[in-house]
Amino acid sequence: MNQRQLEVFHAIMLHRTASRAAEVLFMSQPAVSKTIQQLERSIGFALFDRVKGRMVPTSEGQLFHEEVARSFAGITQLRQTAARIRDFGSGKLRIAGLSALSTSIVPLALKDFQQRHPNVAITYLTRLSSEVRDLVAAGQFDLGLAADEVDTTGVDAVPFCRYKAVIAVPPGHPLAKVSRVAPKDLHGVSFIALSPEDTTRQEADAILRAKKVEPRIVLETPFSSNVCAMVLAGLGCGMVNPATAGPFVASGLLLKPFDANVHFRALMLFPTNRPQSRIVQDCVQAFHKVLQTRDIFRPDPASV
Fold this sequence. Notes:
It comes from Allopusillimonas soli. With about 300 residues, the chain is an alpha/beta fold. The protein is built from 10 helices and 12 strands. A 5-stranded mixed β-sheet has the order 4-3-5-12-6, with helices on both faces. It starts with a helix and ends in an 11-residue tail after the last helix.
């Protein structure tokens, strides 16, 4: 029993006649009949009864074909998988990203990507930027989105986006009445701050110190989304990435332009020494498409 004999048998069962199977397989009908005879001798039972010139499957032939059909389905699946890997990569996409982008840019980009690649399995993890970097450096993830303060040793890093910081204000707060927030407006104000190692906070702290402005820090967190939630709950004001704040604005959060040269910056991280698959390239394209087409998330004019 060999692969060619099984192909001929499978073709006859699918097309119901030896003549049609011969056409599909580009064989002569006598060659088809001879191949089936060889297969029957090798397996030890008849696959067809010859009735008035037609090949009618025996009950044993029907049972045997159930197994043959399953094996051919597996081969078809393997061919499809091979084609998908050839064209797009593994068929899986693993992304790790910082929290600031997980409520806005990431969902929109992945929606666009998934519409074009519905059969690609996507894994997305929200992690601290340092953890994102470690996952990508270890080759466990295909793409990372991290803040620019992250150590880029062991990864390929390219600038992704840059947003001017805004001040998040709860409804009813005194600053809700101003059109723009100046650094001096934050003096003595209850303030939810980002973590001290955050480069955006460091930029803001340097500006506030130079102007002798001291907000009253009531809470620190590494995530802009947490700042938004705490501000909305009334704990104070906070400096946030506008790309994070969209869902919270719908719940009443107020965003005020901040009169200071302070920015949030993100990098795209890739494993080193690994060519990007078509899947990864298309995902990167989806991320950039969101930046270009969504006004609420569009970076400031100095965007990298």
